[in-house]
Amino acid sequence: MRTKRRIYFCISLCLITLSIHAQQTADSVDKQWIFSGYAEGFIALSSNGKKGGKISDFQYNHNRFGSPRLNHGYLDIEYKGNKMRMKTALHAGTYVKDNYSAEPSSLRPLLNASLGILVSKPKNIWIDAGIFPSYIGFESTHAFDNNTLSRSLLAENSPYYLSGIRMNYPLSAEQELNFFLLTGWQKILPVKGNSLPSLGLQWINKIDSDSKLNWSFFAGSDSPDDQRKIRYFNNFFWQRQSGSWSYTIGLDIGAEQKSKKDNRYNHWCSPVLITSYSFHDKLKAAARIEHYDDRNSVIVKTSTGNALTGSGYSMNLDYQPNTNFLLRAEWRKLWASKEVFYLEKGFTKRTSYITLSASYRFRKELKK
Question: The domain that contains 72 carries what CATH number?
């Protein structure tokens, strides 16, 4: 069955390429090809971490101690036309090794592989299908999109990527809805034995030019049909830019059935607050406080078997000499109720470390 799925997926990618090629003649006006790339290297330093070892089982970015590593890098080619669009991107790094470990090895290099078709030009409604970044949360793996060097526990334990079908529906200049039919909770292929697709909804409200409110919802199952437990998940965040200051308040709330057809649920939640201050266009500082409570181990699975209930804070300083290059330094402290963080030998309830990173990006429009 898995081999057939891989074959179908490869065929789909070929059809996407052929469709784009066939569309070029009809889509000759305003068509655009864009080639872009990104790379972020890092080193995390701690007095008690094992060199080359992980910080924890539930962090997927910058999750190595003591040696320089590539966190995430990719090459992307994007096509934009009047009636069709396409994105294909390949990636590598420790983030890919950790976060895509459950995917078939042949699919792990795919960061993005999607095809979109315009269904309503007056309303600007698109339908996209394939593999694409998650609609959940305000953080991504791209350093330039985030106020902090490392990702929040909230972000690390919700989907970074999804596969399926999405459709946008603008309600007004300020509000938009996005609908999703998905293969699962951060899955390229469905869980073996699970025939139930997952559903997603996103509401974006641009309150004004400086602030934004977002609600993202997910409903589906991450288990086979004979063990089906329905999962419900909400992500809320509010962001505001006020002069040199920026603010982000985020909250994840999730629930999953304890067993099939059970009226009882296991719950988890995670609040986070991030603020940043720009001294000038090249120098910025940020601070974060956060908490994560998954006492029933619905999302977080640790090597010790202990559930994650913990908190943390961090402070970072950024220097961006130009639009394409970013240098960062961050000090982070995390603690939990039980041993969940790696030591050089064994585990601990607390960890603190300094991370240094350098990120580079480029974007080039190819000739039409």
Answer: 2.40.160.10
- Give dist(CA 215, CA 177) in Å, integer: 10
Residue 29: the pLDDT is 52
Could you tell me which residues are beta bridge partners of residue 19? none
Q: What is the DSSP letter of 285?
A: E
Domain carrying residue 148: 2-366
Give one DSSP letter per residue of 178-228, joined into a string.
EEEEESSTT-SSPPTT--PPEEEEEEEEEEETTEEEEEEEEEEESS-GGG-
CA angle 259, 265, 270 (to 5 degrees): 130
CA 359/CA 179 separation, integer angstroms: 32
Give how many domains the chain has, as a whole number: 1
Integer angstrom CA distances of residue 365 from 31, 36, 77, 118, 210? 11, 8, 10, 22, 29
Q: Are 271 and 293 in contact (CB under 8 A)?
A: no
CA atoms 186, 101, 306, 55: torsion sign: negative
Q: What is the pLDDT of residues 39-51, one digit of tens each?
A: 999 999 998 888 8
Name residues whose C-beta falls within 8 Å of residue 30's C-beta, 6 or more positions apart in sequence.
80, 81, 82
pLDDT in tens, 54-104: 999 999 999 999 999 999 999 999 999 999 999 999 999 999 999 999 999
The per-type count for the chain, helices as H runs and strands as E runs, is: 3, 18
Under DSSP, is residue 111 helix (H, G, I), strand (E, B) or coil? strand
Nearest to 294, CA basis, from 47, 56, 62, 11: 56
H or E segment to which residue 10 belongs = helix 2-23
Type of residue numbered 3? T
Alpha carbon dihedral 214, 219, 224, 226, in 10-degree steps, equals 160
pLDDT attached to residue 15:
44
Coil, strand or helix at 335:
strand
Q: What residues does 38 pair with on adjacent strands?
A: 74, 361
